[in-house]
Prior knowledge:
By secondary structure, the protein is α+β, with helices and mostly antiparallel strands. The chain folds into two domains: 8-177 and 313-320, Ribosomal Protein S5, domain 2 (2-Layer Sandwich), CATH 3.30.230; 183-311, 2-Layer Sandwich (Alpha-Beta Plaits), CATH 3.30.70. The protein is 36% helix and 24% strand. It contains ten helices and eleven strands. The protein has helices spanning 69-82, 110-125, 132-147, 155-160, 195-200, 208-227, 230-236, 243-246, 253-262, 284-300, and strands at 8-17, 26-43, 51-55, 92-99, 163-168, 173-177, 183-189, 267-270, 277-281, 305-311, 318-320. The strands form two sheets. Strands 1, 2, 3, 4, 5, 6 and 11 form a seven-stranded mixed sheet that branches. A four-stranded antiparallel sheet has the order 8-9-7-10. Helix 1 packs parallel to helix 2 (110-125). It starts with 7 loop residues before the first strand and ends with a strand.
Amino acid sequence: MVPVNQWIKIKAPATVANMVCGFDILGFAVNNPYDEMEMRFVQRAAGQASITIINIDDYNLPTDPEKNVAGAALLAMIEEYTANSIIDFSTIGFEVKINKLIKPGSGVGSSAASSAGAVVGANYLLGNPFSKDDLVRFAMNGEKVASGVKHADNIAPCIHGGVTLVRSIFPLEVIALPSPTLFVTIVHPQIEVRTADARSILKQNVQLKDAIKQWGNIAGLVAGLMKGDYDLIGRSLEDVIIEPVRSILIPGFDDLKKACKAVGALGGGISGSGPSIFFLSKEKETALAVEQEMKKLYEGLGLAHHTYVTNINQKGVEIEA
């Protein structure tokens, strides 16, 4: 265990969930952007909270642990840990500083980064008693605070790194997938799409012909990643169920998709629930050309935006003691 009052630094990466056709089951971590966090054990007096959240950004997120995604994840972890441990959390607690560099509501796993960063940091402070899949389970409680639903398509790659497939939530089964070298271009139009709202507009019934096509795309995408088949990856980056509904929330989406594929992107689509949009490319030059198309479109629409050209992050959350 790390001594009381010794700070550790945590770097929690952004993530792209769904990978177009893999709603709630596929995702990958990226190197940029990422959240910065600091964490330590602290002594606490009787009656004080076991978790103290300190925001060092301007988003004014809740500091009540039950209403904060990092706090909710830590509470779940503490509950399981204390059932099998001699540590008394009535006299000791966690203090967490969070600097959110991943804007909330951006669609690149802002809530997942805070949730995952908190439990990975706490696990390190405790001497790493939990597995990565245990940490995913705890962090899913943060996602429930954010969206009302426990899902792991952002959490799993944030903790495991790389590309992950969530085969099952209950019981949890996360499968790490290999990935060829890919460049990722992301644009974040400066509008907010709340995950809960983006879920509320989805259809509850799917036609069988659409389900069959979607299953084929998911299987093709996984096979393409495992074989390093870029053409198969590109053909499989198609969503006939979720994207047609959610894309109406994002200005310029259809035009942007056409423009990015025209300059050589393998494919892409909505990142998570949006409004961010991502595209995958084989070459950095193509990824940069995609970025220019993104800038051109949103400048033409007069809509503020941020872009990133990055890679798939193979490490996930990192700790600096």
